[in-house]
Specification:
Shape: extended
Radius of gyration: 15 Å
Strand content: under 5%
Largest sheet: none
């Protein structure tokens, strides 16, 4: 429920799920895939990094999070 699918309209939830399916299909076409993991990232990520032999990672902070978008919708 990280993206609050239970709290958005059915059309938005369906759109988000279709986007994830499309992303996974595109990644699979390139020999990869999308992994979705639920739980505490502090516990899960180190375990997954070890399982997948990850030795380098980059990230970017999302400046337009769902909470911000929800506040704009109400305004």
């Amino acid at each position: 429920d990280s993206y609050n699918l239970r709290h958005c309209t059915p059309l938005r939830a369906n759109f988000l799920l279709e986007c994830l399916q499309d992303l996974d299909n595109n990644l699979r076409a390139k020999g990869s895939r999308l992994f979705v993991v639920q739980g505490d990232p502090i516990q899960n990520l180190p375990r997954l990094w070890k399982d997948w032999d990850v030795d380098f990672m980059t990230y970017d902070q999302d400046e337009t999070g769902e909470q911000y978008a929800s506040e704009l919708d109400v305004a």
